[in-house]
Amino acid sequence: MKKVVLNWNMIEQRWMYICCLFMCLEVNCLYAQEETIYRTKQLEEIGQMLETRGISAMKPGIYDADAICPGKRVRVEAGFGGLISSIGLELFDTRVVAEYLRPVYDFVERYLLRLLLIDKPDEILRLLNDDKVGLVLNGVPFEKSPVALVSFVAAIQPGTDFVFVADTTAYKVGWDTGTGTLQMTFPKQYGLIAGKDKIEMEDDFQKELFLYMPETPAVEQVPLSVLTAVPGCGYYRRRGEHYIIPALCSDRYYRVAPDSVVTLLFDKDCPEASLANLFLEGERIGQEVFMEVEHRRYGKRRDHLELPVNSWVAFCKGEKCVPYFGVEEIARGKVTGTVIMVNSDLGYNHVLYYECDRQKFLKGDYSLKGWLYTYVPTHNVLDLFEEYKSKVKKLNY
Question: What's this model's pTM, rounded to 2 decimal places?
């Protein structure tokens, strides 16, 4: 068990961490020149497979891949610290891949490269079945196609027209190359799309959260027409959407000044509404609030983090997550409930159970406790909230 303190106000702490990291990288510079460091085990396996095929794609760059697919090139990219973060075929025109998140396109380029490197129909079929990925060549399932996959991939160029669509559970991409059609479907499953196992996902979450630099949000313009007065409370509600159950929602709360100026509410005298705003609009809340979090990880591992809620919310939104907030209970002087950060594009949720000492909050002590589960698959969350439905209360806050 370890404890990590994340405090974005302590700028020198962050820069000390980054400087130490660079020092470590510099110390290992000679070693790194000989040994490529990959961000994930899957990328390392791909790099080794390329090496066995005579393609030494061990550093960032573009490499000729004729040895595995005529006319194709492999693109290798590095992220922070020089770690290899992406390997894949050049299939998409990077100028037009804006409709979905970049990892979705990276997955297609990486996965088709993996299939070509395997080059054994039985092993390819086993991988497709394990990953629940569908591959159709000229309208025929992969296992029944008389034409090899490499022929279809070779016909795809970065400028080749393609169709990319999604529903609530999966993506479908297809090319019509003029000589044949290739279609691939794959589930909205973060581990599959990112090419990471559970431990790699959780480790990267903590690293990226620590290094995340929140941007100043644009000024919010809230028209009076979308606000409804909360009876007896002196503030207004802006109705939002709900997730799974009505009580887990995105309602925001505001004050309206005599001159009609609308401001986001955060007030020690209004704990529940203030908590809702904090977890939904933390990057816009001027008051920094700290939370002691137990990060509950794969294999019953527990890491203890201390982090600003404001920055955690900003980080999750930066991942394109949509936040939802719910109060489960107000009893014994505590407010308890759930916050869920939903990433529908990549099929995962961050689930946080929080606890607030209401009496301390009323006195201006805003410190919180939390229990966090990261990258929870969407279908698991749906099962989880079957129990939650029976406990949650609709509270007028």
Answer: 0.87
